[in-house]
From TrEMBL:
Superkingdom classification of source: Bacteria
Gene3D superfamilies: Phosphate transport system protein phou homolog 2, domain 2
Family note: Belongs to the UPF0111 family.
Signal peptide coordinates: none
Listed name of the protein: Phosphate transport regulator
Pfam families the record matches: PhoU_div
Length: 206
């Protein structure tokens, strides 16, 4: 780790941890959506919307701290990129839940539960990793596993698309369901962006 003669603003670590913990909350709401009937989904969507707003607040707090701090724990552009990528995850998860409600989807296609399970695992790993930014330890396994999960998510997504286009669904239903599974795939990509940013930070700080 690089030796520094100047003090560093350490509240960023806590804010990144809080943002990641909020993503775990979002992933649990996605899991809850799977087992909910259509009458319960609107209420889940409301809670997801509240979680997404909390995520926005956390991101804005990081940006405010970044703009007001003379010394930062690592490069400013990496702080911005990490905060933005964490925010993207929450945005995509909230969008997926909102689309399920808006499109009045009766039944999600088989395979979506696997997508959401991957996201839930990535959320747990990300929440566990954020506190380790303080010491830059025990992070290698994190970004390796998240990249593996993203590859798994890609495979699940491709199988879902093949299922949607097998002729079982009418054209309108295909469009609705494809948008939902595409957004969930974007959430998986955003987890990988977070992991890649953490790897970049760790390499710079080593």
């Amino acid at each position: 780790m690089r030796f520094r003669l100047t003090p560093r603003e350490t509240s960023f670590y806590d804010m990144f941890a809080a943002s990641a913990d909020n993503i775990v909350t979002g992933s649990k709401l996605l899991m809850e959506l799977l087992g909910a009937d259509s009458s319960a989904r609107a209420e889940i969507a409301e809670r997801m919307r509240a979680a997404e707003h909390a995520g926005d607040d956390a991101t804005h707090a990081i940006f405010h701290q970044l703009n007001s701090s003379f010394i930062t724990p690592f490069d400013r552009e990496d702080i911005y990129r990490l905060a933005s990528s964490l925010d993207d995850i929450m945005d995509f998860m909230e969008e997926a839940v909102d689309l399920v409600v808006l499109y009045q989807v009766e039944e999600l296609p088989k395979g979506v539960e696997q997508q959401i399970e991957v996201l839930a695992r990535a959320a747990e790993l990300t929440a566990e990793a954020m506190p380790n930014l303080r010491t830059m330890t025990n992070l290698t396994e994190y970004w390796i596993e998240v990249n593996r999960l993203e590859n798994q998510a890609d495979q699940i997504h491709r199988k879902l698309l093949a299922h949607l286009f097998n002729g079982k669904y009418d054209a309108i239903e295909v469009l609705k369901l494809k948008q939902i599974v595409d957004v969930l795939e974007e959430a998986a990509d955003a987890f990988e962006h977070v992991a890649n940013t953490v790897e970049t930070i760790a390499v710079k700080e080593s």
